[in-house]
Design a protein that fits this description.
Helix content: 25-40%
CATH class of the largest domain: Alpha Beta
CATH architecture of the largest domain: 3-Layer(aba) Sandwich
Radius of gyration: 24 Å
Strand content: 15-25%
CATH superfamily of the largest domain: Aldehyde Dehydrogenase, Chain A, domain 1
CATH topology of the largest domain: Aldehyde Dehydrogenase, Chain A, domain 1
Largest sheet: 7 strands, mixed
Number of domains: 2
Length: about 500
């Protein structure tokens, strides 16, 4: 029996006025329906924003450490429900239990970090240029935050956005991805259980056009945080920018790993396999390009193909499974389209490139780990984000060429270099045009207390995670206190007075 989930607005669970609903299906087993969800529209967005605006009046005045106490409790509840959340997430979006446990743990870590940051919302004081005058600045909340999240990290990414927003004193209208609404619902249930006041967090299910766009364009939504594709991000930037809203965009990636001829190849192999095929390649930080030094190219490709062919694909609820399905049929279709593009552009398919055979795969959107060699720089396979288990291998002759190839895309999120040469490692850190660089590690593995984000078309310069995200969710108020007892004319040339 499936569950009929609801929106959460002004502290109440409620259906959409339309009465329409959409299904949430397990991508590994289409006979497994997680539940149905309301198809909301402008009416629910208006109600949610009104509730958030009303709640903001008192939430912004709640002392920040008290807000932190709520978030600490949220983390405690998530710890108690971690396995439950992980299993629901695996059913909902397909990645294996080891990964959904990690996704949940990321949310737990973010809760505790956010709770502690409420005692460290530091600002600055500075000397005045005038006597008997003090200059101070304060961090102030912004207002109502519109939070729009993707399906690939349905617990971690919402917590990256919602917890700092709440810690800074903002209220939230949250639209999760339609592919993963159940995990989002559990997160909001936990926030409510922790005692977050009614209206502070509001959940509205539905499509990007009927819910996402109205949130972006609503006059009473003060800031937008979005994670998703670069094309949608550009559209959001244009819509919100026309209203001079603060916007944080975390967008696409075409992440590369450089493997030099002096690298530990076994270590690099483990990193590439995990980076390319973890989450079925459906991460913005997934390894989609391997840039191999000519001297070790053939040896490493042989090692890579042998290991990739042994990866166990299937339903992630089975603890032995190493890679789950694509999120839906549309995404699998995108993967298949790029495999054909790769073939037509002269790349050599050396692994996968098809759906797995067998009755156990018939009810899911599975695709085999896929590897192309002889991929040419600037080809579509090498340049465009696929968001699936497809890995491109590019041969280079030296370090400088490797850096050039890695940088020569419109994206700049994550990167990696495997080398034992410390000088090359530091040159890579300096010269790679990405927001994240790993040395002797895969392109995935961000930590909650460090800034996360990229350059170029990967985003608009803001960062999630760490201390920097709190700057996005707060505004600086500058205060001058003059206790001289007389008018002091600042910004006047005193020599002329």
């Amino acid at each position: 029996m499936s569950n009929a989930y609801k929106n959460f607005i002004a502290g109440q669970w409620q259906d959409a006025a339309s009465g329409e609903r959409f299904d949430n299906i397990n991508p590994a087993d289409h006979s497994d329906q997680i539940g149905t969800f309301p198809k909301s529209d402008q009416r629910e967005v208006d109600a949610a924003v009104t509730a958030a605006r009303q709640a903001y009046k008192s939430w912004r005045l709640t002392p920040a450490p008290v807000r932190g106490d709520f978030l600490k409790k949220v983390g405690d509840i998530m710890v108690a429900r971690k396995e439950e959340i992980a299993k629901l997430m695996t059913r909902e979006m397909g990645k294996v239990l080891k990964e959904t446990r990690g996704d949940t743990q990321e949310g737990i870590d973010t809760a505790y970090y956010a709770a502690s940051e409420t005692r460290r919302l530091f600002s600055h004081t500075a000397p005045s240029e005038l006597p008997n005058k003090m200059n101070i600045s304060f961090r102030m909340p912004v207002g109502v935050a519109g939070i729009i999240t993707p399906w690939n990290f349905p617990m971690a990414i919402p917590t990256w956005k919602i917890f700092p927003a709440l810690a800074c004193g903002n209220t939230v209208v949250f639209k999760p991805a339609s592919d993963t609404p159940a995990t989002a619902t559990v997160l909001v249930e936990i926030l409510a259980e922790a005692g977050i006041p009614a209206g502070v967090v509001n959940l509205v299910h539905g499509s990007g056009s009927k819910v996402g766009n109205p949130i972006v364009e609503h006059k009473d939504v003060n800031l937008i945080s979005f994670t998703g594709s670069s094309s949608i991000g550009k559209d959001i930037q244009a819509r919100a920018g026309a209203m001079l809203k603060r916007v944080s965009l975390e967008l696409g990636g075409k992440n590369g790993v450089i493997i030099m001829d002096d690298a530990d190849l076994e270590l690099a192999l483990d990193g590439v396999l995990w980076g390319a095929f973890g989450t079925t390649g459906q991460r913005c930080t997934a390894t989609s390009r391997v840039i191999l030094h000519d001297k070790i190219h053939d040896k490493f490709v042989d090692m890579l193909v042998k290991r990739a062919e042994k990866l166990k694909v299937g339903n992630g609820l089975d603890e032995s499974i190493e890679m789950g399905p694509c999120i839906n049929e549309g995404q699998r279709g995108v993967v298949e389209e790029y495999v054909e593009i790769g073939k037509k552009q002269g790349a050599k398919l050396v692994c996968g490139g098809k759906r797995p055979e067998g009755s156990q795969y018939a009810k899911g959107t599975f695709y085999l780990p896929t590897i192309f060699t002889e991929v040419k720089p600037m080809s579509r396979l090498e340049q465009e984000e696929i968001f699936g288990p497809v890995l491109s291998v590019i041969r280079v002759r030296n370090f400088d060429e490797a850096i050039t190839v890695l940088n020569d895309t419109v994206y700049g999120l994550s990167s990696s270099i495997y080398t034992r040469n410390v000088n090359q490692a530091f040159k890579a850190i300096r010269d790679i045009e990405c927001g994240i660089t790993y040395v002797n590690g895969p392109t995935i593995g961000a930590e909650a207390h460090m800034p996360f984000g990229g350059m170029k078309e990967t985003g608009n310069g803001h960062r999630e995670g760490g201390w920097q995200v709190y700057e996005f969710y707060s505004e600086t108020k500058t205060v001058y206190v003059d206790f001289s007892g007389k008018l002091q004319k600042a910004q006047i040339d005193t020599e002329q007075v």
